[in-house]
């Protein structure tokens, strides 16, 4: 699957219980094609009692969601991206609703 989302990007959630929310990408799980998004898909994990922690506790963690269920968000709106080849390498372009395009970032990888 093509990956156009990087760590630190703001994404829009397309499916699931958190549909319509936005968050920042914390990590990318390459083998599973999943991303962990800040404040999205939060799960509660119970920690057992130990000598260091005699009461035990509950912690909230963000669970990963599949990359097909998120899209890039630029200035609060969903973004449609395209890759174009240039002299400097490959570039990622954002196309807005009115048809104008703007350079979003350079993409790592070989030219062509």
Automatic annotation (TrEMBL):
Pfam families: KOW (PF00467), ribosomal_L24 (PF17136). One of its GO terms (biological process) is translation. GO terms for molecular function: rRNA binding; structural constituent of ribosome. Signal peptide: none annotated. Residues 4-31 form the KOW domain. One of its GO terms (cellular component) is ribonucleoprotein complex. The keyword Ribonucleoprotein applies. Keywords: Ribonucleoprotein, Ribosomal protein, RNA-binding, rRNA-binding. Belongs to the universal ribosomal protein uL24 family. Part of the 50S ribosomal subunit. NCBIfam families: rplX_bact. One of two assembly initiator proteins, it binds directly to the 5'-end of the 23S rRNA, where it nucleates assembly of the 50S subunit. One of the proteins that surrounds the polypeptide exit tunnel on the outside of the subunit. This is Large ribosomal subunit protein uL24. The lineage of its organism: Bacteria, Pseudomonadati, Chlamydiota, Chlamydiia, Chlamydiales. The gene is rplX.
């Amino acid at each position: 699957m093509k990956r156009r989302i990087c760590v630190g990007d703001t994404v829009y959630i397309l499916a699931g219980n958190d549909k319509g929310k936005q968050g920042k990408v914390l990590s990318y799980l390459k083998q599973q094609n999943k991303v962990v998004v800040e404040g999205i898909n939060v799960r509660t994990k119970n920690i057992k009692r130990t000598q260091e922690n005699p009461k035990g506790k509950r912690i909230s963690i963000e669970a990963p969601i599949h990359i097909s269920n998120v899209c890039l968000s630029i200035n609060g709106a969903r973004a449609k991206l395209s890759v174009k080849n240039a002299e400097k390498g490959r570039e990622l372009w954002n196309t807005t609703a009115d048809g104008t395009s703007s350079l979003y970032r350079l993409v790592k990888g070989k030219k062509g």
